[in-house]
Amino acid sequence: SSESCRSVLKTPLKQAATSHGVLAELQPDCQPLTTPPKPTETLPADPWTPTSNLKMLISAASPEIRSREQRRELSDHTREGLQARHCVQEHLSGDEYEKSQPSRKEKSLGLLCHKFLARYPDYPSTAENNYICLDEVAEELNVERRRIYDIVNVLESLHMVSRLAKNRYAWHGRHNLPKTLQALKKVGEKNKYTQQIQMIKKREYEQEFDLDGDRNEEVARSFGSNKHSEMSFVELPGMEFRAASVNSRKDKSLRVMSQKFVMLFLVSTPQIVSLEIAAKILIGEEQLEDLDKSKFKTKIRRLYDIANVLSSLELIKKVHVTEERGRKPAFKWTGPEVSPNTQDTKLERTSTTCPPPISESIPSKEQCSKNLFPSRGKQNFTRHPSLIKLVKSIEDDRRKVQSAPTSPVKISASTDQNLSAFPRKTAQVPAIAKHQLEGQSKKEKEMKVKLSRSALECHQSLPAAVPTPEAPGSAAPSQPPGVCPPGHSPVSPVMLPHPHCGVSYAIYLHPSQAPTLTTYSPSFMLQPLPGANVAGMKSINPKLLGRVTAEEGDSQLAPEDPTKSLTAKERSPVKATTSSQRCLKRSQPLQENNLIKRYRSEEEIPDTSLTFFPSGYLIPLTQCAHGSKAGVPKEKAGLCSLHHTTYSSPVAGVIPVTAPELKAVNIPAFQITPLNIMLSPPPIAAAPLLSSSCLNSGNTSSARNLSSSVLNFTLQHIGLIPAGVQVPASPFLQHTPLSSQAANVNHSSENMNLQEEKASKNILQLPDRAGIPLQQGDHFLSPLQLSVPKEPQTVTENFFRTPGGPNTVSSAPADSDGTDRISQGTLYIPQRKLEVSED
DNA sequence: TGATCCCGCCAACGT
DNA sequence: ACGTTGGCGGGATCA
């Protein structure tokens, strides 16, 4: 249909190429109807010129309405409608004229994107060669080419298109989407976005209360330092086509930003990401510290651009998260759930699934060769803006290397074999795991020492460090005992030879992943596994979960999803997905360093998850088990099983935790974040112990008094508590912010243990019973403890709760409000009210 | 106002 | 040298 529209003349119009002047050219007549060539410009001066008419036409009838309509339904044919409309318009009078002007909305990128998408099928058959000529599209859509780039770049990030050559792109539609999302999710996990999100939230929280600035900074720093991936564009294995000649720059921020943005959704449990956080994380990679306002602002702008496109793709939708602070713009993932099905590895290349329309599908070999080319030197560098960065990264790498005892084993160095490699990977994994393990142990020691380092590292390291010998037994056999099954293991990085640069990648084969989500699963359990750890998830959720879930979230989510999914055009079953894509590769040559880093990180990661939790707090993770159900064969299964174990009531005392359990727990720890834990002042049964003093006094001073153990305890709790939860003004916090302050306090406190440090870093560790202070902790019983919710489960549940009500396996049966339960325990966790509202 | 984000300058790149 | 890409941020709109 749209085609029909196309204007005949495109050529001349070429529009925009450069700015304005062009418009004049429009020949009014040209547009026989269809596309008016560049309507836009409009010099104010000649409103009535033919051109202007065009404009008007376009803008035509109530734009708003129109836009809405369009949005609602795709609009597709919007254009035509417009045209029709304009007829109507003609009679506009002056004032109306104003109205008629193309409202901004009409020109929105989102709308434009809809139009763009309307031109191509979601699932193009291979046969048709869908290639996109930017110029044509720009003309047809009457927009500057610049705008098309914005769209295409985002689409490219999702591998919905790929660049063939100059001005030319191949349309793949959504065939690759599943793979892409899967790949992005993995990378997101690897990057620990979950934790980062938590960290940011925590920081915000702290800042609110002006808790300790110091700490914040520290956190920030650590955060910044975290290696996470530099930006590299995530490519799909099969998709690398880009013509060697063409593809030059790989990094490209918009593309990369888009991918990262998507990653955030994929790793977040409530799948809701606020722009603010997204911007911070994206910026953060390099340096958080410079809060640089303008930079932040710019980032936000870009995110809007990306969000508009993603919205058009129906992958996300705008919502508002209302917190105490106020309402913040955010987006909710409405795209398909990403199933971490790792295993498919065996598949061959995608070709089956989606053969790239164009010839492009090249056999691996060819690809390799191509890839090689690009990798060539300087270019990469060229664009790379910050040398500094490089340096940094290098250093990091170095560090990492050092620190990391074991580098992941690189398996095949040879390039081509990828294919062959894949299959192997699986097999290899175990072996690798061992290596890692070994390495880890070493690392552990180191790590401890290093704790000071970046938080992330710390996290990572810690786990390993932890003594928890116990783990072994519990853990799945396959996994190495030392390692926490959960976190780490999941990720066993396998290095794959990378065709492209010759660089090898580490691939995560995470056994766990596979099982992980089945679908929408609430995932709680699952998700965390991979990189982030359960904890991360939990923590994250908490905030959001709070209300979001319950409220709008549920309603929306559940129902919607299905719908949406359906909505999307019928998706072809394509998903076969299985292909081996797991390998993400980074194209950038430079990245090698990064790769290294990553490895490290990966390795380390495990640790993170591990954390020790000593004591007993466990938070019940029940769900895990459930989640795992079907799919889970692998390790995960094991994990899951572990998880389900769950709870101990803190109150009760500590329950011995098994290793697995620990893991589950640990995470949360990290993110203490927002903690707004409040004691509910009036909490009902305040737990027995609540010492009024603590609560009341809330003074910091009192807090300080707490023994470190107590602190730990607190922290733990905090961790437990849904991070998300913020207590607004809760009195309690105000007085003494447990969480953050606590951290501070700890420092001061006599015992600074590693743990504490860790905690400070973000990781919360539970005091190890055995070793530590807890016992010493006289205060153990301190009110805080008391405060601990008796029923951990409840808490947990809350955490876990996934938005999609049903999904939540774990969650307690509908308790709508976690709070209540909590109240039982002394600890009152204020749930932040998050409300998600749509536009 | 603050949230959105269009617009298009202009630099990095490619050819 | 010129065309293509696309980073970036002013400032107009919208809500």
What's this model, at a glance?
The relative contact order is 0.11.
Give the number of DSSP strands: 13
What assembly state would you assign to the polypeptide chains in this entry? single chain
SS strand fraction: 5-15%
Q: Average pLDDT value? A: 44
Helical content class? 40-55%
Placed side by side, the strands forming the largest sheet appear as: 5-7-6-13
Structural class: alpha+beta
Number of helices, where a helix is a run of at least 4 consecutive DSSP H or I residues = 37
Distance between the termini: 30 Å
Radius of gyration equals: 27 Å
- Major beta sheet summary: 4 strands, antiparallel
Net shape: globular
Uncertain segments are 1-92, 212-216, 218-229, 241-246, 343-834
Which secondary structure elements does this structure contain, and how are they paired or packed?
Elements: H1 2-5, H2 10-13, H3 22-25, H4 50-59, H5 63-72, H6 78-89, H7 94-100, H8 109-118, E1 131-133, H9 134-141, H10 145-157, E2 161-165, E3 168-171, H11 177-190, H12 193-208, H13 213-225, E4 234-235, H14 253-267, E5 272-274, H15 275-284, H16 293-312, E6 316-322, E7 327-333, H17 364-375, H18 377-383, H19 387-403, H20 418-450, H21 455-465, H22 471-474, E8 492-496, E9 505-509, H23 534-567, E10 585-586, H24 592-610, H25 624-628, H26 635-645, H27 659-670, E11 678-679, H28 692-697, H29 700-705, H30 708-720, H31 731-735, H32 738-748, H33 754-761, H34 773-776, H35 783-787, H36 792-800, H37 818-824, E12 827-828, E13 835-838
Antiparallel strand pairs: 1-3, 2-3, 4-10, 5-7, 6-7, 6-13, 8-9, 11-12
Helix pairs in contact: 4-6, 8-10, 8-16, 9-10, 10-14, 10-16, 11-14, 12-13, 12-15, 12-23, 14-16, 15-16, 19-24, 20-21, 21-24, 23-27, 23-36, 26-27, 27-30, 30-32, 32-33, 36-37
The structure holds a DNA duplex (15 and 15 nucleotides).
